[in-house]
Amino acid sequence: MSNGYDALVSSLETRFDYQSARTVAKEAVAAAGLKEQAKYSPAELQSVVDALGAVGTDMDRVWSAVGVSPSGAPAPAAPAAPAKAEKPAKEAKAEDEAKAEEAPAEKPAAKPAAKKKAAAKKKPAAKKKK
C-alpha cells in the first residue's frame, strides 16, 4: 500500500464517511506539521497517525488499513469472523438425531384468496338534449 495522502484518506473512509474522512485527514496532516504528499516517510506517517490517535476513537480499522498504529507497534490485524466452536463428533451426531426426531411444526393454512367482485357494467352516457 502506498503511504501517501490519498491512501490515508482511503484508510479513514473505513471509519468515516466521504467528507469526514477528508476533513480528518487534512486536520491530522496539519497537526503533524506536514502537507498533502504523494508519499510520506515512515517517520512522517507515524506523526500523522499519532495526531489521528490523539483525536480519534475506535480507529482500529484505520490502523489496519494504514499499517501503523499510534504507539508505533505493528497495526492490529483486521477483525476476523468469529470461528465456530467445533463440537465433539458424538455430541454433533446426537444433536442431529434429536433434531431429526422432532416433529416439524405445522405451517398455518394459507388464507383462501378473496373472491373478486364482478366488474360493474357501464351504461352508456345519456345524450344531452339540445
Question: What does this protein look like?
Answer:
With 130 residues, this protein is mainly alpha-helical. The chain has a domain at 5-66. Helix content is 43%, strand content 0%. The protein contains five helices and no strands. The longest helix has 14 residues, at 18-31. The model has no long low-confidence stretch (mean pLDDT 75).
Overall structural class, as computed from helix and strand content, comes to mainly alpha
Mean pLDDT: 75
The number of helical segments is 5
Q: Helix and strand string, N-terminal first? A: HHHHH
Helix fraction bin: 40-55%
**Uncertain regions: pLDDT < 50 for 5+ in a row?**
none
Please give the radius of gyration in angstroms.
32 Å
Total strand segments: 0
> Biggest β-sheet, characterized?
none
What best-fitting shape do the alpha-carbon axes yield?
Answer: elongated
Content of β-strand: under 5%
Distance between the termini: 87 Å
